[in-house]
Amino acid sequence: MRAGTYERLEIDERLDFGYFLTDGETRVLLHNSEMTEAIDDREYVDVFLFLDFEDRLAATMKMPIIKEGEYGWVEAVDTVDHMGVFVNIGLSKDALIANDILPEYRPVWPEKGDKLYCTMRITENGRFFAKHATEDVISELFVSASREAFNKSVSGHVYRHIEAGCFFLSLEGYKGFIHESQMTSEPRLGQLVGGRVIDVKEDGSINVSLLPRKQEAISPDAEKIIGYMGLRNGSMPYSDKSNPEDIKERFGMSKAAFKRALGYLMKEKRVYQEDGWTYFTKEQ
């Protein structure tokens, strides 16, 4: 048995802190914290094998979000300068996007909450690495935009940088390009950005501007709310019912100013509220 494989193992011994499982030759621990359901009445259990924090082979009933050779969306959870970016793959251990495959320009590395379309690679010694999709891979997700998308608001995750700008995949599946002249700062890899469609190409891809419409430039307070929600992938646990002290601590503005800015964004249909939270609309 080795890390990174899926196994059906026999229950060998019950302990207070979990179960020992076996394939008839080797035993591995399935800790209580790695169980997703009770297994008392079973003889066998399906598990995924990984190396625990002490580099011991262990079992989990949790299944990774991504697999070798398959892609899925994962979220960045930590950045380590000399290593790269760790992403959550649904297990108690994260996978690393190594620094040598990240952009050379450090400020555009993903930060916590950014999302990337990745696959997983498992080394011979059981280490989990993630790799974000190339253009060829992510192009399988593209759908063509119609001319009706022109001048509409659109949001998506950045997946590639080039010298002239960056590409992103919209929430609808459109391939978008943001030229450096159409941004105030360069978005991070994996960052959720929102802008306006300024051109629909013949191939169904779009050009997007992150600059505000001159006639619709929003207030600094509304920009602060939009910026905060962008860092949280389009949602925040605040609404017009939130505690004034909480609003002051988070945004540095009064409850009245917050409500005015939020009211404007709701009127423009850029956000909506539900159960005490505020979310980007699909048009944002």
TrEMBL record:
PROSITE patterns in UniProt: S1
Family: Belongs to the CvfB family.
GO terms assigned for molecular function: nucleic acid binding
S1 motif domain span: 151-211
Gene3D superfamilies named in the record: Nucleic acid-binding proteins (2.40.50.140), Winged helix-like DNA-binding domain superfamily/Winged helix DNA-binding domain (1.10.10.10)
Phylogenetic placement of the source organism: Bacteria, Bacillati, Bacillota, Bacilli, Bacillales
Name of the featured protein: S1 motif domain-containing protein
InterPro entries for the chain: CvfB_fam, CvfB_S1_2nd, CvfB_S1_3rd, CvfB_S1_st, CvfB_WH, NA-bd_OB-fold, S1_domain, WH-like_DNA-bd_sf
